[in-house]
Amino acid sequence: MLRALVAGAVGLCVFGCASSPAAPEVVERDAPPSYEEIVQRYNRTVEPLDTLWSRATVQIMSPDGDGGTRREQGEGYLQVERPSRAALSIGKLGETYFYLGSDPDRFWWIDLTDERIAIVGQHDRAGAAALAQLGVPVPPLDLIEVLGVLPLPAAPGSGQTAWTTDGRFVVVRLPGRLGPRLLMMDPETLRLLRVDLLDRDETLLVSAELTGMQDVRVTGRGPGAARLPRRYVITIPREEVTVRLTLYEPQTRTIAPAVFDLPGLLKRFRVDTILEPRREAQP
Q1: 49 Cα distance to chain centroid
Q2: HEC sequence for 91-119
Q3: Mind listing the pLDDT tens digit for each residue in 121-180?
């Protein structure tokens, strides 16, 4: 089952594609590393990342409703507290236009470009379709999943491992928030290259390709204590949405509680209208 699911990973343009890419070299492999071995090695690399702060540039591409593509871009800050607090601000020249965020119970997408609208909902009450209809580019919990800051669950049997069909990469399959998630890694370094989030029917919901590693400045530790990708290309196929996220000067630091304080944010940004996604039936 796992090998069938990752067969498509052979053709991924993880490092960029030429117009006529050559067929990938097939590498003969013995059994893949065990899940327990990967957990032990991978979790050491993300252990310091209880918090993450980084400058960021963001580009969001989505259908404009007339057959074209709407592009929204800007710069801001990404701030994360594991496991469920996230904030991504997007703006220009010091002015915030969009603010994506979450706490343990809720998520929000604040749009300040025109009418100062906030979409606010419960994590467990809105599915991907409802969020897309209201313009949420990527659910914040899915953003945290694809960043590569979460440790893998250590309980024996939590995940499975397999090679991609060309034998170049190892893929870890484990339960996710809405269904399985697949993590493709370099087998030598366990560098995270791609994350796929599926629903219960194995349909792809979110996919992210990760490139360009960089050091994270970790408080009280020397260089190399933790590393993260520099660039993320996050796609939501069903909605034809692509989010390009680039991180600069990532570091661990204490994050002000106001960053994740929804009532305070609504007041600070003088939000006029609050919308709630409709609840979707769970299978």
Answers
A1: 15
A2: EECCEEEEEEEECCCEEEEEECCCCCEEE
A3: 888 766 655 566 556 778 899 999 999 999 999 998 899 999 999 899 999 999 988 889
CB 164 within 8 A of CB 173: no
Across 33-62, b (16+ Cβ under 10 Å) vs e yields bebbebbeebeebbebbebbbbebebebbb
- Give the span between the Cα atoms of 84 and 91, in whole angstroms: 23
Opening angle at CA 272, ends 266 and 274, nearest 5:
70
7: pLDDT strictly greater than 90: no
Cα-atom radius of gyration of the chain, to the nearest Å? 19
β-bridge pairing 117-122 and 273-275? parallel
pTM for the predicted model, two decimal places: 0.86
Give the three-class secondary structure for 151: coil
In whole angstroms, what is the distance from residue 127 CA to residue 197 CA?
A: 13
* Range list of H helices, 22-159: 35-46, 128-133, 140-147
Cα dist. 270→108, 119, 186, 222 in Å?
Answer: 15, 14, 46, 42
- Long-range contacts formed by 227-233: CB under 8 A, 24+ apart: 227/45, 228/49, 228/52, 228/147, 228/148, 228/149, 229/148, 229/192, 232/146, 232/147, 232/208, 233/208, 233/209
Pairing assessment for the beta strands 69-81 and 273-275 based on DSSP bridges: unpaired
Q: Is 280 helix (H, G, I), strand (E, B) or coil?
A: coil
Place of tokens 């491992």: 161
Sequence-distant (6+) residues with CB within 8 A of 172 are 35, 38, 152, 159, 160, 161, 182, 183, 185
